[in-house]
C-alpha cells in the first residue's frame, strides 16, 4: 500500500492572454502549492475503484478515477487499484484539488504498477486530464503557460506565512 498527499495551489499571478481556437484561454501564471492537502491511499486490487470521504465526489467522473483508467490504458497494464481519498481541499474553490488528486494518482500508480514513466510522460498524460494536472506533477513553485500544460519549475522560496480566506460556498463539504 502507498499513501500520498495531494496539495492545493494558489495562483500568485494570473495573466489571461486571450482565447485559443480550442476554447481554452492562453495563460501565464505563477503558481504555488500550499500546505493544505487531500490524503490518498493506493492498494493493489482487481479493478479500479475509489472510496472517497465526500460522497458527492464518488463518481466515475472523478479525476482520480479518470487518471487511473488513462494510465492503465496507455501503459497496457492489467493491474488495478483501490484508491482511498480523504477530501480536505474544499472543492469548487479554485484550489486545484481534483487536479492535484489526479496527479497524485499518476505519480503513485507509476510506482505501484512499476511503470517507470518519465516526468514528461506523466505531464503529457496529466494534460489530457486537465489544465492544472501537469503543474501538480511538479508541485512547488512554477511558471505555468499555455492552457496549463507548459510548466517551468522555479526555485523561488516565499518567506513568511500566508493566510488564505475562502468565503462559504454552498457546494463545500460540511457547509
UniProtKB/TrEMBL annotation:
UniProt source species: marine sediment metagenome
Transmembrane segments: none
InterPro entries for this protein: GHMP_kinase_N_dom (IPR006204), IspE (IPR004424), Ribosomal_Su5_D2-typ_SF (IPR020568), Ribsml_uS5_D2-typ_fold_subgr (IPR014721)
One family name in Pfam for this protein: GHMP_kinases_N
Keyword Nucleotide-binding applies: yes
GO molecular function: 4-(cytidine 5'-diphospho)-2-C-methyl-D-erythritol kinase activity; ATP binding
Residues annotated as domain GHMP kinase N-terminal: 62-140
Entry keyword set: ATP-binding, Kinase, Nucleotide-binding, Transferase
UniProt-recorded name of the protein: GHMP kinase N-terminal domain-containing protein
GO biological process: terpenoid biosynthetic process
Alphabetical list of Gene3D superfamilies matching this protein: 3.30.230.10
SUPFAM superfamilies tied to this protein: Ribosomal protein S5 domain 2-like (SSF54211)
Amino acid at each position: 500500500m502507498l499513501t500520498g498527499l495531494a496539495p492545493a495551489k494558489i495562483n500568485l499571478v494570473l495573466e489571461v492572454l486571450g482565447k485559443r481556437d480550442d476554447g481554452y484561454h492562453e495563460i501565464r501564471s505563477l503558481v504555488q502549492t500550499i500546505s493544505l492537502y487531500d490524503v490518498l491511499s493506493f492498494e493493489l486490487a482487481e479493478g479500479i475503484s475509489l472510496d472517497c470521504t465526500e460522497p458527492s465526489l464518488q463518481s466515475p467522473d472523478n479525476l482520480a478515477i479518470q487518471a487511473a483508467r488513462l494510465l492503465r490504458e496507455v501503459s497496457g497494464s492489467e493491474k488495478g487499484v483501490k484508491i482511498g481519498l480523504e477530501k480536505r481541499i474544499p472543492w469548487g474553490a479554485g484550489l486545484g484539488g481534483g487536479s492535484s488528486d489526479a496527479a497524485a494518482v499518476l505519480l503513485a500508480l507509476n510506482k505501484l504498477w512499476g511503470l517507470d514513466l518519465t516526468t514528461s510522460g506523466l505531464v503529457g498524460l496529466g494534460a489530457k486530464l486537465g489544465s492544472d494536472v501537469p503543474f501538480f506533477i511538479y508541485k512547488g513553485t512554477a511558471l505555468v503557460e499555455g492552457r496549463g500544460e507548459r510548466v517551468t519549475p522555479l526555485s523561488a522560496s516565499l518567506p513568511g506565512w500566508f493566510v488564505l480566506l475562502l468565503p462559504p460556498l454552498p457546494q463545500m463539504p460540511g457547509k
